[in-house]
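Handoff note, outgoing to incoming analyst
You'll be picking up this chain. Sequence as last confirmed:
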Amino acid sequence: MRFVIQRVKHASVTVEGEVIGKIGRGYMVLIGCCDADDEAVADKMVDKMIKLRINEDAAGKTNLSLADVDGGLLLVSQFTLYANCKKGNRPSFVDAGSPEHANALYEYIIEKCRERVPVVETGSFGAEMAVELVNDGPFTIVLDSEKL
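Most recent structure output, in case you need it:
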């Protein structure tokens, strides 16, 4: 499982001209799953993401968690995080999870985040989305379950 976490001042996702998810300060998170991922992996990833101390304190040090800054989450499914670009110039996505499996894990991740974070907004699984954000820092972290 892979999460690309961007600390944002604000972010939104639009589908067919309609904003379907929007947050202020917090994290915009791209989520990619493979078929080997399960709920235990998702639990570990969610816990790590929520506890990350990547927000600045009064001294400007990255020392505060999402909860410490009352941050929100914008969660967006992104199968292209499993792009394989080893051969040629056209990426292969065979390493990405099947749509059914990935969607089930995406919904599970949303549920687990909503248990711990007051503001959780989402994209629309499988839809063409326009994601807008103002990256704060910029500060971007990649969490890969194989490296945790």
